[in-house]
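Help: read this over?
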Amino acid sequence: MSTSISASLRRLVIQRAGNRCEYCGLSQAGQEATFHIDHVTPIVAGGQTVENNLALACVSCSLHKSARQIVKDPQTGGTVKIFNPRQQIWKEHFEWDGVRVIGLTATGRATIDALRMNRALILAIRAEEEILGRHPPP
């Protein structure tokens, strides 16, 4: 099985995501680092390089997610599956409070914590994105 992502598949993933990280909503516009094509179910766990297993992820979300599938809810201490942008709806698990992302469910809270989606640097980036009209995501 090939893990190489063709140019046409890469374009499809980027277009489907609206050129935004499918985890934290950050726009690729204005960012220096090229966003990653993330295997939602990691290759090491049997995930395939196919359209329904790929998501656009900013470098930070991609690196913090790594090959994790199970994360800890900071509120309950229980474990849950990390947010899956191919199977779940973002607005059912998260909402915006200015530049902070708030978890509405155990999955949302655990994903925010695991991906460090409210660390100081990303909050500053989102504040700048807000001034530029790119935050919050549509």
About this structure: The longest helix spans residues 120-131.
